[in-house]
Amino acid sequence: MHPSRNSMRENSKQLRRQCLLVATLLLASCTQPSVDCTLSPNIADPTSTTSPIHDPSLINANGSYYVYSSSDLGSFYQSDNLRDWRLSGQVFDALPDWLVQQIPNADHIGAPDLAFYNGQYLYFYQSHISNTCDAATGLATNKSLDPESIDYQWVDRGLILRSKPHYTDINIYCGDENATFNAIDAHFFVDPDQTPWLVFGSTIGGIKLVELDPLTLKPLPNSEFVTLAQRFLLQDDPIIEAPHLRYRNGYYYLFVSFNHCCLAADTRYHVRVGRSRSITGPYFDAQHWPLYLGGGTPLITGDGDYIGTGHSDLFSERGHDWLVHHAKRPAEDYRAYLQIRKLRWLNNGWPSLCTEAA
Predict the structure, then answer these.
(1) Is-catalytic flag, 317?
(2) Distance CA 303, CA 136 (A)
(3) First to last CA, the chain
(4) CA-to-CA distance for 187 and 125, rounded, in angstroms?
(5) pLDDT tens for residues 88-125?
(6) pTM (2 decimals)?
(7) pLDDT over threshold 80, residue 45
(8) Is 55 a catalytic residue?
(9) Distance (Å, rounded) from C-alpha 339 to C-alpha 51?
(10) How confident is the model at residue 60 (pLDDT cuts 50, 70, 90)?
């Protein structure tokens, strides 16, 4: 039996709609944005020790500011005023035994995330094999962040998340028996109901959210791994990573970084944001495009002589919010520097790094 002309026309319409959707996704994902305004200034003094700082996480502890950076063993920096910084030490003396057992070729402590929870400081960290999703996220805790305190001692709590290749010969398609994900760039978040969550992930599997056990801070048994954001993979630079969350006035705001962090002159790394009424999404950008289809409103895409303005963190103090991120200077062989910028909230509820005059 031959198909009717009506069914053929309907199939043709469906095909055209599908092709239009694919084309729209490609255009939305591939367009390189720009933020055309005067940015709020970076207040971290680049003549102090603000480099090399990658993937910064900033926290205030007992009147001192601490920034933790990706490095060989978890470097951290200290300041009294957010402007002048000094190197203060490292979290580990050697890579944790569990990490070496899980990933024998691990060579760094990356993408730190600092938080204070239930009377102790949390230090989430990750390590992975470069250009793969063979990765692990761990947790260490401390009663104090001051290296001079008698209470200062990092206690490693071990493995929190592990992503392994699903197939032995494909090392960019990973996860566990429950989901596909990359166990990197974890951010700890507590919602208004005091439920702890972990948002994490990158390109393969997208940005994930999982509920944590409030005691172990590991994913609850049989927890759902919810995809909050992802990008179309068949483009030149499909990377999405470095998520963090903020709750404000009934909305959850999801910040992410787009594109490859480290391509020298071709680096287009930048920060985007979306929001949702529910922590599990869906998240939409200011143009109402969903982040699970590649959306995201650009916050910062560069700063004068600096490029690669990404891998951000949000620091809040005395009613003010600051976007903390790294940026690279081409004139110094793309050396990474710490940058801290005041973040404003517009009347429409969206965050902005533009000055009020802009």
Answers:
(1) no
(2) 32
(3) 66
(4) 9
(5) 999 999 999 999 999 999 999 999 999 999 999 999 99
(6) 0.91
(7) yes
(8) yes
(9) 10
(10) very high
> How many Å is the Cα radius of gyration of the chain?
21
- Say what the pLDDT of residue 9 is: 47
Token pair for residue 332? 């110094």
Q: What's the Cα-to-Cα distance from 44 to each of 20, 322, 338, 346, rounded to whole Å?
A: 45, 11, 7, 24
Q: How confident is the model at residue 32 (pLDDT cuts 50, 70, 90)?
A: low
306: Cα separation from own chain's centroid: 20
Give the residue numbers spanning the domain of 48: 31-352
Closest C-alpha to 44, from 340, 303, 302: 340
Instruction: Report the SS3 class of residue 346.
Output: coil
> Which is the catalytic residue, given 113, 185, 211, 241?
241
- 17, part of any domain: no
Tokens of 209: 């959210």
* pLDDT value, residue 36: 82
Report DSSP state, residue 234. Answer: S
Q: Is residue 184 part of a domain?
A: yes
Give dist(CA 296, CA 286) in Å, integer.
Answer: 8
Residue 324 lies inside a defined structural domain of this protein: yes
For residue 263, the domain's CATH number is: 2.115.10.20
How much is the pLDDT for 31? 54
pLDDT, tens only, 215-242: 999 999 989 999 999 999 988 899 999 9
Question: What gap in Å lies between CA 284 and CA 292, rounded to an integer?
Answer: 8
Do residues 138 and 99 make contact, with C-beta atoms less than 8 angstroms apart? yes
The maximal CA–CA distance of the chain, rounded, in angstroms, is 84
Residue 23 placed within a domain: no
